[in-house]
Amino acid sequence: MADAGTELGDAFAGLLRAEGAWGHGSAFLPADEALAQVALEVSDRPLVASNVDLTEARAGGLRSDLAASFLEAFAQAAGVTLHVRLIEGEDSQHVLEAIFKALGGALAQATART
């Protein structure tokens, strides 16, 4: 899963730094009872800051720590500071869905032209 994060991060790195791109974005998005916020910014010190512990969760038969590995690899390859906040949610699948929907929203905003 880290390889997928690296590849996707590489693909977004140029888009995030394109002339006129905002280079930062954030989104709150729900998935059933879960609500997540993702904020990101182009950075020379990429990192993931998160209040979500995905190490024991399972969704769709996959270990959710794969999602954490994906996010770490994505942030490093894209060169972004990535903040992930779970506002509400218990069901692992819904939590992951809300996080990735919010990531998509934040990326759409960050790659938009000013």
Number of helices: 3
How much helical structure, as a percent, in the residues? 40-55%
Shape summary: globular
Biggest sheet: strand arrangement: 1-2-6-3
Q: Could you give the count of β-strands?
A: 6
Strand content: 25-35%
| Oligomeric state of this protein | single chain
The span between the termini is: 32 Å
Structural class: alpha+beta
Mean pLDDT: 92
Which spans have pLDDT < 50 for at least 5 consecutive residues?
A: none
Radius of gyration: 13 Å
Largest sheet: 4 strands, mixed
Q: Give the SSE string.
A: HEEEEEHEH
Structure description:
Strand 4 and strand 5 form a beta hairpin. It contains three helices and six strands. The strands form two sheets. The chain has a four-stranded mixed sheet, covered by helices on one side. It has a two-stranded antiparallel sheet with strand order 4-5. The protein is α+β, with helices and mostly antiparallel strands and 114 residues long. It is globular.
